[in-house]
Design brief:
By secondary structure, the protein is mainly alpha-helical. The protein is 81% helix and 5% strand.
Length: 253
């Protein structure tokens, strides 16, 4: 909703009549303006036409005449006027403005009760504002404390993976151990197979080398025996002959 245009002082008087008396015609407004000054009917008509152009009033046809009613509540329109009056006349000091207004006239009992009620409401609003400010301060302090503690928690969270790193490396160590065991087993089995193969090759080659030696020895043995047989008789034969010759010589003598 667009913000309403600020009315002039005479337009505010006409609106005050509509807020308190309800929808009114130009003639009724002409008789009821608060300042009581004598004005022409056309002057009041021009004021109402100006309010209609500003969309501050609505015109409704009632019989032959037109009736006007306020388009906004008093609180909406007066808030800006009151703020301007308080700022321009009293420098924003509300207490002085209230005292000045009270000294301008007398209050009826009903007005007094309304003012007291408004003062109580004002106190309640002030208490709420102070409570909100206190809550905001405590919330800010809590946020600051949390913000200070947060970096330490983040640092601990960042360091935590470094402590857990050995747990991640444990499977790698196990794999290395298992690999070493497997390598040892393979080395042992390879040594065993190499020894067996070496024994088999030696066993196969040994008879081949020793057999010729034995056969050669066997061959040489008969040769030695044959030599002994042949040599022995050859040596013994001359000895016998000499002995016979010696015996014959001895007998002749």
């Amino acid at each position: 909703m667009a913000r309403p245009t600020h009315p002039s002082n005479l337009e505010l008087q006409a609106l005050s009549v509509l807020w308190h008396e309800g929808p009114s015609t130009v003639a009724e407004l002409h008789e009821s303006l608060p300042d009581g000054k004598e004005r022409a009917y056309t002057t009041v008509l021009s004021v109402m036409q100006s309010l209609e152009r500003k969309s501050l009033v609505k015109r409704v046809r009632v019989g032959r005449a037109y009736s006007y009613e306020a388009a906004y509540s008093q609180e909406v329109i007066v808030r800006r006027a009151t703020h301007d009056f308080l700022t321009n006349a009293f420098g924003g000091r509300l207490g002085e403005a209230v005292l000045a207004i009270l000294s301008a006239g007398t209050l009826t009992p009903e007005e007094k009760t309304n003012i007291e009620r408004e003062l109580q409401r004002h106190k309640a609003m002030a208490a709420k504002k102070t409570a909100k400010k206190a809550a905001a301060k405590t919330a800010k302090k809590a946020v600051k404390k949390v913000a200070k503690k947060a970096p330490a928690k983040k640092a601990a969270a960042k360091k935590a993976p470094a402590k857990k790193a050995p747990a991640k490396k444990a499977p790698a160590k196990k794999a290395v151990k298992t690999a070493k065991k497997a390598a040892k087993k393979v080395a042992k089995s390879a040594k065993k197979t190499a020894k067996k193969a070496a024994k088999k090759t030696v066993a196969k080659k040994a008879p081949a080398k020793k057999a010729p030696a034995k056969k050669a020895a066997a061959k040489k043995a008969p040769a030695k025996k044959a030599a002994a047989k042949t040599v022995a008789p050859a040596k013994k034969a001359p000895a016998k002959k000499d002995a016979k010759k010696a015996a014959k010589k001895a007998s002749k003598k």
